[in-house]
Write a structure and sequence with these properties.
Strand content: 5-15%
Number of strands: 11
Helix content: 40-55%
Distance between the termini: 42 Å
Largest sheet: 6 strands, parallel
C-alpha cells in the first residue's frame, strides 16, 4: 500500500507540474553513475511493482494534452527532431538548435565523444540550455556492443552475433543491462539498440555480426531479453531496423537497398522479432531506408505510408514512438531533399526524424515542416499525434535535464569483464 501511495503521488505531481508549465517530473530520483551497478540480471521471480490506479494514466494523458495545447507549432516540430552535433563540446549552433528551434533530442556519434568527462560536460551543457523548456531532451547514441560502440572509456562488449552463439537469455539480458548502464553513466537516456534484424544474407555489408543470428527464434529470444533489461536501467531502447535490414546487399548509408519480398514473406521471417518486441511492450522502433517494391513501389520504408502506418501501426498494432534511421544517409539524400523527405516521412506516420551531421539540415527540415502545415500538406493535428507519443515516452521514463558528475567507470568495466568471462565459459 505504501508503494501504491507513492506511485499515485508521483502521478499527481506530474499532472500538476505539466498543467502549470513547471519543470518536468520534479519527483524523479536522478541516476547516479558512480553508484555500484548490480552484477546480474534482476531475478524474474522478483515481486512486480503494484500498478497505479486506472485514473493515473487518464491524469497523465490529460496533463500531456494540456502541455501540447500550450506549445507553439515551432516547439511541437522541434520535439519531432533528434539532431546531430559537431565537435566534442557544445557550441553556439547547439545552443541555437535547443533555444530557438526547440529540438527535442540530440544524437552523439563517435567523433563527438572524446572521453567520459567531456561527454558528460557536453550533455550537461545541452541540458542547461534546455532548462527554459518544460520538456527534457532525448540524448541518444548507438551503443550496440561490438563494432558499433561509440562511448569512450569502456571495455568492449561482445557482438550480438557472439551473444547469439552463446544462446543464453541470461547473457543477453546482462549485456543489455550493461549497455543501459553505459549510456546512463554518460548522462544520456536513449540507445539505438538492440538490433532485431535477422542476418539471413551473407552478402549483407552493414548488419552481419550486429545481428544475434540467422533465425527469428534466436534473434527474438536474445534481442528481447537485451531490450527488457536495458529498459530496467532507465534508458530507452530503440529496436531496429524495421521492416528488417538483414537480407540486404547494399549499405543504406551509401545507397538505397531493395528487397524483393512480399508481406507474407516478411511475416514469416523478418517481422517475427519486431512482433515479439511489440508484444513485450517496446516503446520505440526505428524504421530503415529500404525499398520493398512488392509493398510500395515508390517510397523507401521510412517514407512509406504502406510500411509505417499500414504495416507497423495497423497490422502489427504498434502504438509507441516510430523513429527514422538517419535521413542524411545516401539511401535518402541521393533521391530526395532532406526537407522533402522529412515531410514525406511524417505523412507516412513517423514521429521522430533523425537528422545527423550538418546544422543546415535541421534548418531545412524545420522550415519544410512549418511550411507543410502552413500550406495544408500536414495538419497540426497530425503533428500533435506524434508529439503526444513523444511526451508519453519521456514521461514514462521520467526524463529530466539534471546535470551529472563525470563517471567513475571502474565498477562498470569490472562488470563487463566478469560478464564476458562468465558467459564465454558456459
Amino acid at each position: 500500500m505504501k508503494k501504491l501511495s507513492v506511485l499515485l503521488g508521483l502521478w499527481s505531481m506530474l499532472f500538476i507540474g505539466l498543467q502549470s508549465g513547471c519543470s518536468w517530473n520534479q519527483q524523479t530520483t536522478p541516476a547516479n553513475p558512480s553508484s555500484p551497478v548490480p552484477s546480474s540480471v534482476p531475478s524474474p521471480e522478483a515481486s512486480p511493482e503494484p500498478s497505479p490506479s486506472p485514473s493515473a494514466p487518464v491524469a497523465e494523458k490529460d496533463a500531456i494534452r494540456a502541455r501540447i495545447d500550450k506549445m507553439t507549432l515551432e516547439e511541437k516540430i522541434g520535439q519531432m527532431i533528434i539532431a546531430g552535433v559537431q565537435g566534442t563540446s557544445a557550441s553556439s549552433e547547439d545552443e541555437r538548435m535547443i533555444k530557438e528551434q526547440h529540438v527535442g533530442g540530440i544524437i552523439f556519434y563517435k567523433n563527438n565523444l572524446a572521453d567520459p568527462a567531456s561527454v558528460v560536460r557536453f550533455a550537461n551543457q545541452l541540458k542547461q540550455w534546455n532548462e527554459s523548456h518544460s520538456v527534457p531532451l532525448l540524448l541518444s547514441v548507438d551503443q550496440e556492443g561490438g563494432r558499433v560502440s561509440r562511448l569512450p572509456g569502456l571495455d568492449l562488449l561482445p557482438t550480438a552475433q557472439e551473444i547469439g552463439q552463446w544462446n543464453s537469455r541470461e547473457a543477453a539480458g546482462e549485456i543489455g543491462a550493461i549497455l543501459g548502464e553505459e549510456v546512463k553513466a554518460m548522462g544520456l537516456n536513449m540507445n539505438f539498440a538492440p538490433v532485431l534484424d535477422i542476418n539471413n544474407n551473407p552478402k549483407n555489408p552493414v548488419i552481419g555480426d550486429r545481428s544475434f543470428g540467422s533465425t527469428a527464434e534466436i534473434v527474438s529470444s536474445m534481442g528481447i531479453e537485451a531490450m527488457k533489461q536495458m529498459e530496467l536501467t532507465g534508458v530507452i531502447p530503440v529496436v531496429k531496423h524495421f521492416p528488417g535490414h538483414g537480407d540486404t546487399e547494399t549499405d543504406s548509408h551509401l545507397d538505397l537497398p531493395v528487397i524483393h519480398k512480399s508481406e507474407k514473406d516478411l511475416t514469416e521471417l523478418e517481422w517475427k522479432p519486431f512482433v515479439k518486441a511489440i508484444e513485450e511492450g517496446t516503446d520505440a522502433i526505428m524504421v530503415a531506408h529500404i525499398l520493398f517494391p512488392q509493398i510500395d513501389e515508390q517510397y523507401p520504408s521510412s517514407l512509406s505510408p504502406a510500411v509505417v502506418t499500414g504495416q507497423l501501426r495497423d497490422k502489427l498494432g504498434f502504438e509507441g514512438v516510430i523513429l527514422t534511421d538517419d535521413l542524411t544517409m545516401g539511401a535518402i539524400v541521393n533521391r530526395y531533399g532532406i526537407g522533402e523527405a522529412s515531410v514525406l516521412s511524417v505523412q507516412a506516420g513517423t514521429d521522430i526524424l533523425l537528422i545527423a551531421h550538418e546544422y543546415s539540415n535541421v534548418d531545412e527540415v524545420t522550415a519544410a515542416l512549418k511550411q507543410s502545415v502552413a500550406d495544408g500538406t500536414l495538419s497540426e493535428e497530425r503533428i500533435d499525434e506524434s508529439v503526444r507519443r513523444i511526451l508519453q515516452l519521456k514521461t514514462k521514463f521520467n526524463l529530466e535535464d539534471k546535470p551529472l558528475d563525470p563517471p567513475d567507470l571502474t565498477l562498470l568495466n569490472e562488470r563487463i569483464r566478469k560478464a564476458i568471462d562468465t558467459y564465454k565459459l558456459k
